[in-house]
Amino acid sequence: CFLTGAAKLVVVIAIFLLTFYVISQVFEIKMDANLGHIFGNLLVVSSKILVYFLLKATKPPRYKCGISKACPEKHFAFKMSSGAANVVGPKICVEDNVLMSGVKNNVGRGINMALVNGKTGELLDTKFFDMWGGDVAPLIEFLKTIQDGTIVLMATYDDGATKLNEEARRLIAELGSTSITNLGFRDNWVFCGGKGIKTKSPFEQHIKNNKDTNKYEGWPEVVEMEGCIPQKQD
What we know:
Radius of gyration: 27 Å
Number of strands: 9
Number of domains: 1
Strand content: 15-25%
């Protein structure tokens, strides 16, 4: 990384002060006590400013939602994670806006879903549906109301599959999911698709609940996913 103009100026001043100090010591140039004190303070301040700019210059850039690289134009950055066992809720972020999380207190057991406008990236709605102790009917009705061009992001928490039936799985598959047909009890799953999508979505991660490989007792490890969603064009 190249130093900014301000940082370069600090470097020049620091070098000048350091050079003057070295010369004064070599040739035993006497300085007034107050002048020496001021000079010392200037050298310390310049050094601190230089360190600040050097750290800032070498700090890696931060991209939207904390993803690993910037998205191209006409794409929306997103990052999401499933829940951790039945303790920590899922998190969904789009364009640096956290749409769902435990901190926002809008997540719950089952399937958590955020709807985003495919043209503008604006949040349309968030819902969660309890697939352990709840009813699948509200999920089915909600899926049927989603309009074409809507980005749909889903993440499981605790158990997101027990109450799923064939109709609910079919409606989610029509959004571009391939793993929904195999989603089982306490599996961890994150998915990003869209209403009216013509192909299967590339944005999907699924880990089976397996007592031999589970990270937590009774639950698999957290699933995380990030990427760039193409903006819907007219």
